[in-house]
Design goal:
The chain has 158 residues and is mainly β. The strands form 4 sheets. It has a 4-stranded antiparallel beta sheet with strand order 1-2-3-4, with no helix packed on it. Strands 5-6-7-8 form a 4-stranded antiparallel beta sheet, with no helix packed on it. A 4-stranded antiparallel beta sheet has the order 9-10-11-12, with no helix packed on it.
Length: 158
């Protein structure tokens, strides 16, 4: 058991190499745990919102967190610092996924939209509509050619 959070934990994901776990939750923290020792090796705190979901960059050096305060943050784990901040949704962000090449991030939120972010340029490039209710989940296909989303409108879209 990994300890350190002091409120509900909403998400936990293994790093690509399986050596770390990123977790986030209602205590407004993103925590990185070493799988072998069980120790929390990094803690990032958020002043505004709670973490809803985490995603590891394919290279395993970056972690993105979807926040209830309409923001997405990307942290460099080795350096222990925030490297990108996006406020592209007008409501809480529920899920996010890195493209397999690591250059893009897909997000879905309570504002019924999906956003595609260009991480190299540090800006949103597409806003996708079509869901008629909250977007709960987003994912890229393994080859990165497609993505899927799921919403409270009972639809899966590709």
């Amino acid at each position: 058991s990994f300890t350190g959070h002091n409120n509900w934990v909403r998400a936990a994901k293994f790093s690509p190499n399986g050596q770390l776990i990123a977790s986030c939750g209602d205590d407004k923290s993103l925590r990185i745990f070493d799988v072998t020792s069980g120790e929390c090796v990094r803690t990032f705190t958020e002043e505004r919102g709670m973490g809803r979901q985490v995603a590891w960059h394919p290279d395993g050096n970056l972690v993105a967190v979807a926040l209830s305060c309409n923001r997405v943050k990307i942290f460099d784990i080795a350096e222990g610092e925030l490297i990108q901040l996006y406020q592209v949704h007008s409501a809480p962000v529920n899920d996010l996924a890195f493209h397999p090449n690591g250059n893009f991030l897909l997000t879905g939120g309570d504002d019924d939209t999906i956003r595609l972010l260009d991480l190299l340029e540090g800006r949103p490039i597409y806003t996708l509509t079509g869901h008629t209710d909250k977007v709960c989940a987003v994912a890229f296909s393994p080859d990165g050619q497609h993505f899927a989303s799921a919403g409270e409108d009972r639809q899966v879209r590709t």
